[in-house]
Amino acid sequence: MPNRLAREASPYLQQHAHNPVDWFPWGPEALAKAKAEDKPILLSIGYSACHWCHVMEKESFEDDAIARQMNDDFVSIKVDREERPDLDHIYQLVIQLMGRSGGWPLTVFLTPDQKPFFAGTYFPPTDRHGISGFPAVLRAIAGAYREKRADVELQAGEMTQAVSRVGEIEGKTARTAELGPDLLAKTSHKLFGRFDEQHGGFGTRPKFPNTMCFDVLLRRGFEENDDDAKSKVRLALAGMRGGGIWDHLGGGFHRYSTDERWLVPHFEKMLYDNALLMRLYADAFRAFGDEDYAATASDIGTYLLREMQSPRGGFYSAQDADSEGEEGKFFVWTEAEVREILQDDALAADVALRYYGITEHGNFESSGATVLAMNRPLSTVAAALDTPLPEVQDALTRGSVRLLAARERRPKPFRDEKILASWNGLAIAALADASLALGEVSLLAAAEKAFEYVEQALVSDGRVMRLAKGDIVKGPGFLDDHAFFAVAALDLYEATGNETRLATARRVADQMIARFWDEAGGGFFFTPSDGEKLITRSKDPFDQSIPSGGSLACLALLKLGAIADEKYNEPARRYLEQIAPRAIENPFGFGQTISVLDRLVRGSTDIVILAVAGDPGGAALHAAAMGAYVPNRNIVWADPNRAESMQAAPLLTADKPPGPRAVAYVCRDRTCSSPITTPEELTAHLRRVDSTEPVRP
Q: Three-class SS of residue 176?
């Protein structure tokens, strides 16, 4: 019989609906039961694409004996971290305060009043590799709660105080930083110390994309002419695109690489990773002019539109790592499979096997299967086969198309069809930003469709809800939902000149300040002022796998402060000056924040295009502006014949005389260039305006 989770919208909770565990969703019913029966709470947090969450479910939550222990001694609550990131943030702090690494599944034991006293991540069903088995953990926790209650209460109280103090420390900084022109020099130098000079990226294994840190290095490379930073970015981009972390047949990036070479991935695909990477590769194309970067960004867009966009327009959140109960089974290949599919095209088979590195021994665990990667350059394959390179390129394309078609006939990994406002904001912004850089209007159309769906389904008078699943809407939204959607609205405004998008960004920003800004202490709370009261109201300033809500809130506010109303600048400036010392000290944890600080330090480059609707000259100037690498840009594309278009961005359109034809102005610190009338002149001007000599750390 299904348990209570069968009634939930979350696909992750529904995955546990037939466990013999008497699961509750987080809510008043579960909390009241814990108090009434005086039982500790077993809180389990995960997400639908999490491989080890699936493992623990199969090993423990589907086991009748373990489920009986949980049902007898605990009130068991299952939480989708994507639905309730506020709970996840608070209770991840617990395991970190215990000196352990966080992650998922997260397993936390609470008193009935939600105070944590013990935490872990994955527990095996029996003692294994120095990790206590889950049944033994359950017995120990239940015994301690019954027989050493005073100790448990003391531990819970101290842990709750510690979690609250971490929130205070994260939200406040006693001193401000001396922000100066050496910001990128100092932070890039620290990032250099963690860079893998052989394979690209940061650290060893597992290796994550860390897109925001690459953005810092890209800024340093081009804004301050640092060749070392440029070469590091190029090494990482090539390593990721050539490795198995990239889906060479279907496009899109997997979550991370389990090795240092980007070869064998953890196979889940997340919407936010692909949105952030699409933007990074599009910016790299702008900066370097390398068509491989354009192709990668374009292929991410193709993947998102094919696999992740709902019929209504919103983007789904994730695809699972597992299929048919095995991690990676959907994506890996044996030599025999490839030869069978391409048996009538010997050249395509030989090229695919050599290029992708497919052998009878494989590279994926002991399965004999291979994760596809660029094993060797195509020119090397052509030389080995003594075949002209164009013929080899055609053969690889033919073979890849047929392999993808064959893969599509396999049982697909599970897709989590929640539509999250925050992650959709990242995807909309990336598609809108990349569309004109790549010359692909389909990407902009997809961004518009997604924006219109999210705005209609999840936004009311600037207030953003958290998610939609079918016709079910859940909220209220958190800081990242508001901040990411405001940035998406601004990116769409820059891409289209549609002033209604700017109006939406202002309404969301006003709600963001009203409901999340901490006037007394500075900074932004993660939860709204009228949200559920938890053991602490936390702040989360770290840029991790996604940007922090605070960093993108400040980006939206600074852009609005430059375009529409200077009132938006003050909270952004106050927050950034508070967080700057920690960001400069640890740029690896504050990559997006460093980029926004760069905007504060360097100032924005404001590009104003005045052209009547339908003027091809205006479109050409706009395409040149969108195609240039200008990290701290603001773009206003206004029609001088429409008052509402000019009045939407009064700080940049004021005193800009329209010409007899389309004109552009490039402004720094409110000082503007002479009118520019050709895209070539505009491109040349933008290449000069931000370039400076490198500052040494």
A: coil
What's the pLDDT at 102? 86
Q: What is the pLDDT of residues 129-167, one digit of tens each?
A: 788 899 999 999 999 999 999 999 999 999 999 988 876
Helix (H, G, I), strand (E, B) or coil at 232: helix
Q: What is the biggest distance separating any 2 CA atoms in the chain, rounded to whole angstroms?
A: 86
* Alpha helices in 74-210, H assignment, sequence order: 85-97, 134-147, 149-171, 183-192
Token pair, residue 345, equals 């095209």
CA 94 to chain centre: 24
Cβ within 8 Å of residue 484, ≥6 positions away: 421, 422, 423, 424, 425, 426, 429, 547, 549, 552
Q: What is the pLDDT of residue 170?
A: 53
Q: Which two tokens stand for residue 127?
A: 């003692």
Angle between helices 549-563 and 591-602 (to 10 degrees): 20
**Cα 648 to Cα 637: distance, rounded to the nearest angstrom:** 10
Cis, bond preceding 571 (omega within 30 deg of 0):
no
As a whole number of angstroms, the distance between CA 264 and CA 206 comes to 10
Using CA atoms of 649, 654, 658, 662 in order, give the dihedral in degrees to the nearest 10: -30
**C-alpha to C-alpha distances, 52 to 58, 224, 251, nearest whole angstrom:** 10, 43, 24
Residue 372 main-chain phi, psi, to 5 deg: -70, 135
Q: Is the peptide bond preceding residue 476 cis, with omega within 30 degrees of 0?
A: yes
Axis crossing angle, helix 183-192 with helix 227-242, rounded to the nearest 10: 50
Query: For 312-425, where are the E strands, in sequence order?
Result: 318-319, 322-323, 326-327, 415-416, 419-420
Cβ atoms of 541 and 550 closer than 8 Å? yes
Residues of the chain under the 50 pLDDT cut: 174
Two structure tokens written together for 305: 């539109």
Buried b (16+ CB within 10 A) or exposed e, 264-295: bbbbbbbbbbbbbbbbbbbbbbbbbeeeebbe
Say how far apart CA 431 and CA 444 lie, in whole Å: 6
Q: Phi and psi for 538 in degrees, rounded to 5?
A: -90, 165
pLDDT for 174 equals: 46
Q: Are 5 and 13 in contact (CB under 8 A)?
A: yes
What is the pTM assigned to this prediction? 0.95
Please name the residue ranges forming H helices in 414-523: 421-438, 441-458, 479-496, 499-516
What was the pLDDT predicted at 168? 64
Mark residue 427 as left, alpha or beta (left: phi above 0; alpha: psi -120 to 50; beta: remaining): alpha
Q: What is the pLDDT of residue 177?
A: 54
List residues bridging with 634 in a β-sheet. Answer: 606
Rounded to whole angstroms, the Cα distance separating 347 from 575 reads: 59
With a CB cutoff of 8 Å and minimum separation 6, the contacts of 104 are: 45, 46, 47, 50, 52, 53, 81, 121
Domains parsed from the chain with CATH numbers: 4-171 (3.40.30.10), 331-409 (no CATH), 603-616+624-697 (no CATH)
Give the N- to C-terminal CA distance of the chain in Å, as an integer.
Answer: 64
Strand order in the sheet with 663-668: 633-638, 605-610, 663-668, 671-672
